[in-house]
Amino acid sequence: MPAVRYGIRSPAGASRRRFDLFGPTWHCCLVTPLLLDSRVAGWVILLQAVAIVALGLALRRRARTRTSAEERLSFERLLGELSAELSTVSAERVDEAVGRWVARLGSHFEVDRVALVQFSEHSDRLHPTHTSDAGPWPPLPDVYEAGELASLAGNMRQARVVRLGRLADLPASAESDRTALEQAGVQALIAAPLTPGGQALGFLALMMVRRERHWPAETLLQLQLVAGVIGSALLRRNSERSLRSIDALSGAVLSSLSARVAVLDGAGTVVRANEAWLAPERSNGIAWAPVGQNYLAVCRSSAEHESGQTELARGIESVLAGEQSGMRLECSTSTPSGEHWYEVVAEPLRRPAGGAVVMLTDFTARKRAELEAQQHRAEAAHASRAATLGELAAGLAHELNQPLAAIMTNVQASRRLLTSEQPPMALVGEILDDIASDDVRAVEIIRRMRALLVKGQMDVQPLDLNELVGDVLRLVASDAILRRIRVHRRVEPDLPGITGDRVQLQQVILNLVVNGLEAMSEMPAPRRHLTIETDLREDGLVAFTVRDHGPGIAPELLGKIYEPFYSTKSDGLGMGLSICRSIAEAHGGRLRAANHPSGGAVFEFALPVATVDRRPESRRLQERRTYAYDRSDGLHSR
Amino acid sequence: MPTIVQTVFILDDDVSFCRALERLLRVLGYRVQSFQSAFEFFAHWSPNVAGCLLLDLRMPDLNGLEVQRRLAGLEPELPIILVSGEADVPSCVSAMRGGAADILLKPFQEEELVAALTRALARDHRRRLEQAEQTDLRARLATLTPRELGVFRLVSKGILNKQIAAVLGTKEGTVKMHRGHVMRKLGLGSVAELVNFANRLRLDDPCPGMHALAGRFRSEPATTAVEA
């Protein structure tokens, strides 16, 4: 600090120069009287007397100068020692050292009391933390409330020094200060703020209790220098303390987490981890690395036998590279103790060196419960569907029996008639008519039944096909993971809206997707891809396509798959595609099945574009009201 | 005995099936009469007409089983062939318990139908013959005086004249006289014929012989049965 160096040396240098000025004076006093006569001697003696007086003055001044130089020297030493100690002492011993130094400052400055007062961190209170009294004076309180010493504290906060030779000099506005100082018996005071790095921590004050005192500028300067050193030490203590508390806090948070958390540096090396992470026996198949090892490398090597972890490595890599502002994915691992599910969250560390925090949460128990519940739901749904269909089928069977029995009986009768010698052809014709009408009746029964299955309650509303597809894919996502099937979704983002019954359309989509998933159960895992697309066709229909990589549909079965009660699945009801097609037709759309030239089956479900607009309900209602009004006026008709 | 003309009645709510079945049965040479509702059937049918009934189990106005229950109370009983769309086990069981002659499942083959009809019509024929015989026997029995009827009952159980006299409180000679009247009125030649006659009558006497010996009052229920 150049300013400090100047402050110490310049007074010493100045005094040396003043010494040189006295050289000619010595010469004049000792040599000149010997050279002159008595007339002149009177003048000389007068001159000598003057010189002696001057010499005496000079000597006194010199003595004073020497004392001042010694004082300065001792302060320099004190400051040197203070800086040396406070800059090397460990943070937790700063307070102790400061206490010692406060006492030493009291004797150095020859004052009655030295006080180090610190500002409270969270309030406007003042805490005299270190005091050193030269006698049994009334002590300072432990704390000054916000209103007390207001003027002094205000000056200190604004980094202004205060020099007060006597209390009477206090302005009228500083009444609270006067009261507080009087209570502490203070008669004179000089204070320098502790503002290291611009942060007001408190102030260092020298006080006189026994008498008033004039404070020379020199003292003020020295006090400021000391306050500067102590302030830095306190700042260092504070920042180390807060660092340590942040560290303790984050450590406590980390170890309280049951999830496994690790901090990676920019290259992916584990730099810190919590206890859960550092327990490899609990890793359950997910990639794990101790502190100091590269986690990405571990992920990549374990990805060779666990395909789910490729995605994990790729995700963390992209977070580390700053391509992603965070990642969250679910992955499963298979271990001898069964399948384990992890949720992986990676958050980038926003610092120049980069890095990321990786958190692995084992939610196997929840997932198992979820899957179980899902399976139960599916079973219950299947059972209730089967029961409903069973009832319908029984009804269907009975109803169909009537025309079939009639046809059979008519055929038997006509066979008898035709064997007679002269067959009554008119009667046979009548019988054939009856057979035909019974056949029509049977067809009608089947049609009515199917319509009943589909049209039961159709709730038509404006819909977005992509949204429906998204809903269904969310439903089957874990099913697909369990079956180790990759689902590729290619949706056309700007699809026009459609109208229909949400539940029925979802049922069709779900049916097609699940069929696709089930079709690939016999395929080797790498071939299990399901591609789902939505697009707008040239014929103006919005289409949803599912392509699987299963065995495809045998050509002779292509026409048969829509027939009710036809199923290739052992547990199938054979109603799926039949109902799907009925739903498609009820919505004015179509359902088609084909085999892809390069293998697998392709199902296409297409629906017409909505003719009504998709503005908010309120707007449409408003418009409808206008229509009604217009119509009643007889002006318009729709 | 002259051959009775038998009619096959059809009761089925399905017009088309009714017509087809009627047609087939006509071609097969049966006399047929068909009805679409139970109401219609009961309005036209009379117990005197011989034949059988092809009855649909499921009908809107009156269930097949209810029709069967109503017919069961009438004499002579009309044999019923139940026709059902499905093998509904509980219905079939209660139909058989109710005395159905047969059950046919729709759609059925001509041979099954003919076999069932043949059995049912034969049963009806047998029943009607039995009924005619009973009518004849009872008419002949009705010519006896109460005292002669008592002697007839005791003789038919193989009890000797002397014992009969003791039971009835008369002399053996009087019993012999009544016995001669019985044999003449009923046109019987021997005791064996008399026993046969009594057996054919199917009179329900729960405990023959002993009860008759114990006291003449015990034979009173048998007398009432004959009068009914």
Please, could you describe this protein's structure?
The complex is a heterodimer of chains A (638) and B (228). Helices cover 52% and strands 17% of the residues of chain A. Chain A is built from 16 helices and 17 strands. In chain A, α4 (38-88) packs antiparallel against α5 (94-109), α12 (425-455) packs across α15 and α13 packs parallel to α14. Chain B folds into 2 domains: 6-134, Rossmann fold (3-Layer(aba) Sandwich); 142-227, Orthogonal Bundle (Arc Repressor Mutant, subunit A). The longest helix of chain B is centred in the middle third of the chain and has 32 residues, at 110-141. By secondary structure, chain B is an alpha/beta fold. Classes of the chains: A alpha+beta (638), B alpha/beta (228). The A-B interface holds A 394, 397-398, 401-410, 412-413, 416-417, 427, 431, 434, 437-438, 441 and B 14, 16-17, 19-21, 23-24, 27-28, 58, 85-86, 106-110.
In short:
Chain A has 638 residues and is α+β, with helices and mostly antiparallel strands. Chain A is built from 16 helices and 17 strands.
| First-to-last CA distance of chain A | 91 Å
Q: Please report the number of helical segments of chain A.
A: 16
What shape does the CA trace of chain B take?
A: elongated
The parts of chain A where pLDDT drops under 50 for at least 5 residues are 1-21, 613-638
CATH level-4 homologous superfamily of the largest domain in chain A: Histidine kinase-like ATPase, C-terminal domain
CATH architecture classification of the largest domain in chain B: 3-Layer(aba) Sandwich
How much β-strand is present in the residues of chain A?
Answer: 15-25%
Proportion of beta-strand residues of chain B: 5-15%
* CATH-defined topology of the largest domain in chain B: Rossmann fold
Instruction: Give the termini separation of chain B.
Output: 26 Å
Domain count of chain A, please report it.
Answer: 5
The whole-angstrom Rg of chain B is: 24 Å
For the biggest sheet of chain A, the summary is: 5 strands, antiparallel
Work out the radius of gyration of chain A. Answer: 50 Å
| CA-based shape of chain A | rod-shaped
In round numbers, the mean pLDDT of chain B is 80
Query: In which order are the strands of the major sheet of chain B placed?
Result: 2-1-3-4-5
Please identify the structural class of chain B as seen in this structure: alpha/beta
CATH architecture of the largest domain in chain A: 2-Layer Sandwich
Oligomer: heterodimer
